Amino acid sequence: MLYCVTMEVRIPHDMDLERLERLKAEERARAQELQRAGSWRHLWRVAGRYANVSIFDVADHDELHAILSTLPLFPFMDIAVTPLARHPSAID
Ligand SMILES: O=C(O)C[C@H]1C=CC(=O)O1
To answer: How many angstroms separate the alpha carbon of residue 51 from the centre of ligand 1?
Structure first.
């Protein structure tokens, strides 16, 4: 199943900078691992915001939740999930 996921990152202003850099590095490694595995199909920055729009290709809601909830930055993200269905006019 395909899902459009929007992640808005909200880092507390008083977070220790070393911890923040570590979390960002861990998030980057995990995001790239999931992209290589094919489950994180697209990752786009939302211009002008610390946010992304992503397309995930996973088996079901449970797999998506398992992935999202174990992302290193998960505690600091507002996440919106939109399940996608095939459009009848799509040609591919
Ligand atoms: O920067 C972000 O949008 C948050 C998160 C998603 C992938 C990644 O590397 O960091």
So the answer is: 7
Domain range for 44 is 2-84
Question: Does the ipTM surpass 0.95?
Answer: yes
Q: How far is CA 22 from the centre of its chain?
A: 18
With a 6 A CB cut-off, is 67 part of the ligand 1 pocket?
A: no
- The runs of H, that is alpha helices, within the chain are 17-37, 61-69
Q: How many domains does the chain have?
A: 1
- Work out which ligand 1 atom sits closest to the CA atom of 28: 9
CATH code where residue 42 lies: 3.30.70.1060
- 37 C-alpha to center of ligand 1: Å? 17
Residue in the block written with tokens 């070393």: 18
Contacts of 15 (CB under 8 A, 6+ apart): none
Predicted confidence (pLDDT) per residue in 60-75, tens digit? 999 999 999 999 999 9
